Amino acid sequence: MTPMMQQYHEAKNACGDAILLFRMGDFYELFNDDAVTASKILGMTLTSRDKGENATPMAGFPHHQLDSYLAKLIQQGYRVGICDQVEDPKQAKGIVKREITRILSPGTLTDDSLLSPKESNYLAAVLSEGDQAGISWIELSTGRFLAGVFPASRLADELARIAPSECLLSEGTDVLPKHTEGKFLHTQRPAWAFGGKAADEKLSKHFEVKSLDGFGFEESDRLAVRAAGAILDYLQETQRGSLEHVQSIVPYRQTNAVEIDESTRRSLELTRTIRDQRRDGTLIAVLDRCRTPMGSRLMADWLASPLADVEQIHLRHDAVEELMNDLPLCEVLAEALAGVYDLQRLLTRVTTGRASPRDLSFVGRTLGKLPRIKAKVTSRKSKLLGEIESQIDLCPEVHDKLAAALVEDCPLTTADGGFIQDGYDAKLDELRGLAAGGKQWIANYQAEESEKSGIANMKVGFNKVFGYYIEITNTHRDKVPAYFHRKQTLKNAERYITPELKEYEEKVLSADEKAKSLEYDLFAELRELVQAAADRLRQTAAALAQLDSLVSLGTLARDRNYCRPKIDETTELAIVDGRHPVLDVTEEAGTFIPNDTTLGGEDEDFVAIITGPNMAGKSTYIRQVGLITIMAQMGSFVPAREATIGVVDRVFARVGASDELSRGQSTFMVEMTETARILNTATERSLVILDEIGRGTSTYDGVSLAWSIVEFIHDRIGCRTLFATHYHELADLSQSLDHVTNLNVAVKEWDDKVIFLHKIVAGAADKSYGIYVARLAGIPHDVNERAKQILAQLEQEHLDLDGRSKIRPKRERHPKTDLQLTLFGPSEHPVVDEIRQADLSGLTPLDAFQKLIHWQTELKKKPGEK
Ligand SMILES: Nc1ncnc2c1ncn2[C@@H]1O[C@H](COP(=O)(O)OP(=O)(O)OP(=O)(O)O)[C@@H](O)[C@H]1O
Hints:
Elements: H1 3-14, E1 19-24, E2 27-31, H2 32-42, E3 47-49, E4 56-62, H3 66-75, E5 80-85, E6 98-104, E7 123-129, E8 132-139, E9 144-151, H4 155-162, E10 166-170, E11 185-189, H5 196-207, H6 222-238, E12 250-251, E13 259-260, H7 262-267, H8 283-287, H9 293-304, H10 310-324, H11 327-338, H12 343-351, H13 357-377, H14 383-391, H15 396-405, H16 426-453, E14 459-463, E15 467-473, E16 485-489, E17 493-497, H17 499-532, H18 534-559, E18 566-568, E19 573-578, H19 581-586, E20 595-599, E21 607-611, H20 618-634, E22 642-646, E23 650-654, H21 667-681, E24 687-691, H22 699-717, E25 720-724, H23 733-736, E26 740-750, E27 753-762, H24 770-776, H25 781-798, E28 821-822, E29 825-826, H26 830-837, H27 845-860
The structure holds adenosine-5'-triphosphate.
């Protein structure tokens, strides 16, 4: 093996399973399996190093294309190690020294070129013990670090909320749900990295604290802390740069947030469309009119966990209302915010020493926008705007210094200088003067020499090897003065130097060199100044993000004519002229038909069964209700004329499970598992949206299941529910259940044609028009006609004498506390729940005995007995 290949293998071993990019001259090369993988993913040509038995597959690309190749590899979920030449090849004795300079993986990106500005990029770590799971997550590009403990059953939902791009798990465990494999990179770490003691030590050392109590962690947070320890361990191993910007860790307490599970997020297309996983056509794309990446990321956070606390929701609504009603204010703020850079990510680069002069000038320009922004939000009515105002710290000393020091258009590196303004530093001005003066002298010297010798086209040039030289074409060779020393011969010319030229060259070069080095020192000073203000700047960045999100919601509300929803503690859901927020924007203006919703108010039914033909708009309608509710609780106004929403604790939405095949489970099984979860976890305060549940099995099974599911929700949970179905039989439920109402979508028949009116009206649908829709879709005429015949026959056989479906289960009424055998196993006796809730420590022995008698009596009663 050549010494270089030896070097390669050492580097390869040191970077584990990462693909290694090995710098050779102007190229990055990949070998063996890495070369094969990369040629497949990046479409690079596969060549071979050596021939015959020793042939090694090899592929490579020019070094300046590193960013684009890195982005592609990372996007595909690979880890990538970069091995660079760390000494100047010209100076190298023997083989050039190389080192791994970075190991990148999807969760550890910090380069702007590899990150999406509008989305947070999280690295997560999980571990699970018993029925609990610890999750920690960090956004390395901003230093935001959180950790929390959750019921193990919520692991998948929490990961769906966080949406990490990489997740660490302990080797040999399989805590992560299978279907997440393609969604984010699963990185196995040794079990010890998740150890409790190791975590305490690492975290305390990093944050320079005695214990993590100061951050608010408690004994019950052990799993969270262990997950956080695993993250820190991984970062220390893979990040060669400093982690100084990671300055605190926040315990995540799941209070006052609406729980939204993974399927609901997907079904409602909150951030990705179901069909092609795009952002366009989702709720976030409608909501996000932010001017800064920080605002966009915060908006995504707000949408990921809407508020469940009425007071907090009111605070956001107050601010949005104030902004919405003040167009000039919104405009001024939006304009000022458009000039605000991504302060959070900039600060990370500053504190980790990776900031460029341009980064510092962006910090300066952002600070320049603050006085105007702060003045505009001063003495506003809404409390939230007041808080934002007080958190914006102008940091005038930082701003003034940056503004005075840096030129308008700063370069991306410090290498060539040229970023400090003239007049900022006297010493620098002097050196620049010297260098410039030297250059002027050289120009004069050339003119004089040219005059003296009569060589008109004498040129002064500069290169790294000879420094300044005089170039004379061969035609004038005979006129060259004797004191010119020839240094280099070209094809048509000769290059000369003179002692005088050399003397000035020395002055110019050393002044240039000194100026650059001084510029670097001044730059470092500025960087330290920003770094010293990092905490205040971080707080300011957070306030700007909030303001940006609120302005975005305010302008959206104004432009799309939204209303302020009334949020209270009732269980009402009343929407007048509600619109689907996405279709409202994408459909041609005025074509979307608004619809009302009334559920769960006093004397109102809380379960709505929506029947109606295919294509009528059932799915659109029920999703719209879910989306409006989520928007309202995240603090947005809603696309409706009026809305009253009794605060919701969980939203469940299930729509056709057709995209679930990738999970490797039967569609029907998935549908039932998810429905089971709703039935087991929804509360009286939840909102349930079911679209054609039970469709994936035989009609009789499907109807029976759908029927009993609605009964269960009605009797046992009592929450606001919208159930869209093709089973018209379900309409009969309204007769046997007190709080079920029927809705359908109006349709007009006209000349053998069907016109969908998209208007939701009371009552049940009587026809499906499925065969009609099939015709629209291009099913051959013969098939269609034959289907009509069969339909007629079937209807004959399955209708009773009144012309109603024979599939109509009888039902005995059960009061809520009845013992029933339910779909998902026998239910518990209410006494069990009483025992579970009983506060035993507060009972005297006598009380306890009486309770026991009471429970026994209850258990001995027959069902229904008082
Ligand atoms: N309120 C509305 N106003 C205007 N167009 C609408 C409205 N609701 C739905 N539509 C249009 O009708 C199309 C079909 O709607 P949707 O998918 O909700 O029907 P559906 O009744 O659920 O159909 P299926 O039962 O076949 O799933 C939508 O793509 C949309 O373009």
